[in-house]
Write a structure and sequence with these properties.
This protein has 202 residues and is an alpha+beta fold. The protein contains five helices and seven strands. The protein has a single domain, classed as Aminopeptidase (3-Layer(aba) Sandwich). Strand 2 and strand 3 form a beta hairpin. Bound molecules: coenzyme A (COA). Coenzyme A binds next to strand 4, helix 4 and helix 5.
Length: 202
């Protein structure tokens, strides 16, 4: 089995890699629980924030030269209102929080530690920023009785808890995307998970 390697790309140099992130997001988020019917135009809108954010990083998973996975992060202050607002409402100082956007890995490469590496790399990047003491990400909330849920689906909750993250019930947001089979974008509820970042290495 070929060795996989991770490479972190930061700030102004990550723009050329956003096409890979878009390709992977469209492929991976097509599956449950996201059911995202992605297209280049909505990806460009979404990823523009990373291109513009000086504090952003993309961690790439590479099989040789082929990008097979990607994971993103940026300071919460550089995120959009939909993500920032729940923190403001809950009384957070935005400058304390680093936001982790997504992790997407092609199915053939899962279970080999890349997802763990994505968290380690992003947390290391976040710790370089003065004042940051918390990492946050959000995940879509689905009705457990949703008939579209595959019978063999394993939720990532245990994986996230094992990385030190816990749900923050007071924080939730809505993001719009077009689901497979839908005529147009609809709002989807996402719940936040947080981890306190101690100074120093993960
Ligand atoms: C989230 C995602 C990137 C995780 O990727 P992954 O590479 O399969 O995850 P890992 O292999 O690092 O970890 C999975 C488990 O396997 C273990 N593992 C298996 N083989 C391993 C190896 N060779 N080395 C290290 N850990 C290994 C890990 O320890 C972990 O178990 P734990 O939580 O009990 O510690 C992947 O499942 C994915 O793309 N999912 C779809 C998209 C998604 O839902 N993303 C999250 C929301 S944005």
């Amino acid at each position: 089995m070929a060795a996989l390697r991770l490479a972190s790309v930061t700030g102004g140099t990550l723009r050329p890699h956003l096409a890979d992130v878009a390709r992977l997001r469209i492929a991976v988020f097509r599956e449950w629980p996201y059911l995202y019917d992605g297209d280049a135009a909505s990806e460009e809108r979404y990823l523009a924030r990373y291109a513009a954010a000086p504090g952003a990083a993309v961690v790439l998973a590479l099989d040789g030269d082929r990008v097979v996975g990607a994971s993103t992060c940026l300071p919460l202050v550089e995120e959009g209102e939909a993500v920032k607002t729940p923190f403001v409402t809950a009384g957070w100082t935005l400058g304390r929080v680093f936001y982790f956007g997504e992790s997407v890995l092609l199915p053939a490469y899962r279970g080999r530690g890349v997802g763990v590496g994505f968290f380690t790399e992003r947390e290391a990047h976040a710790r370089r920023f003065p004042g940051i003491d918390t990492a946050a990400f959000c995940a879509v909330v689905r009705d457990p009785a949703d008939p579209r849920r595959p019978a063999d689906h394993v939720p990532l909750d245990a994986f996230w808890r094992n990385r030190g993250y816990a749900p923050a019930p007071e924080l939730a947001c809505a993001m719009r995307w077009k689901e497979i089979g839908a005529a147009e974008e609809t709002p989807h509820r996402l719940a936040f998970w947080l981890k306190r970042l101690a100074p120093g290495p993960a």
